[in-house]
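Work Package 3 (structural annotation) set out to generate three-dimensional models for the target panel prioritized at the project kickoff. During this period the team completed the workflow that converts sequence records into discrete structure tokens, so that structures can be stored uniformly alongside our sequence database. As a representative example, we reproduce one entry of 254 residues exactly as it appears in the project archive.
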Amino acid sequence: MFLGPVANGPKQTRNQTNLSSFALGRYLRIMTCTVLLDLDGTLIDSYPGILASCLAALRALGHEPDETLDIRHTIGPPLEDTMQILLQAHGDDRVAEAVAAYRRHYGESGFLESVPYPGIGQSLDEMKRTGLRLYLATSKRAIFASRILDHLKFATYFDGIYGSVPSGELDHKPELLAHILSRHALSPSDSLMVGDRRHDISGAHAVGMRGLGVLWGYGSRDELETAGADRLVDFPADLARTVLSMVSGKKYPS
């Protein structure tokens, strides 16, 4: 004879309450966490546009650069550092002029050649839907970064977009990350930096944050491990899962 649903006993009720509290606690933990993301080599493959603008800058200064020039190893640090390296091959020290020429070309057409890594859009969406706060932290000029994210329809995922500024005060990662943390009253211990170069990892550690290294960008595994990356992730499609695992302390299934 059917007697209707059996009422929950005290033990079952306590277990359900404990599970609910655990789930709520983990959700609130995620809600208080912040992820800062690099741009070049982390979210986008910007190499074609950067190379074209570097070649244009060298030509603007009267040089005839090798069209097969490979500059992947120079992408990530401040632009001034990159241009200084490229100019050395020509015995030229006009870094400021080269940077200005680069930015003219990049602002006209170079930035349009950036493409997102496969799976990055989905990872950004997953992180945002879990309640994480996302900020862009790039050595690229902030105005170019904003234009790229707008062009790729990624801007809405971010609570703030930060990059270098004309004054030069935010050219280096430690200063940039410290600025973002201070501007939004963020706790370093509840924040995570994601990037593909050693500067991202060392910059994060300099301000008390953890650093997650990505292996599809312009930096190598050896570079990131030597810099002391707290964790590495192999594929863009795994980024959200890895980030959530780090900020919540829970392992997510593959």
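The first strand starts at residue 34 and ends at 37.
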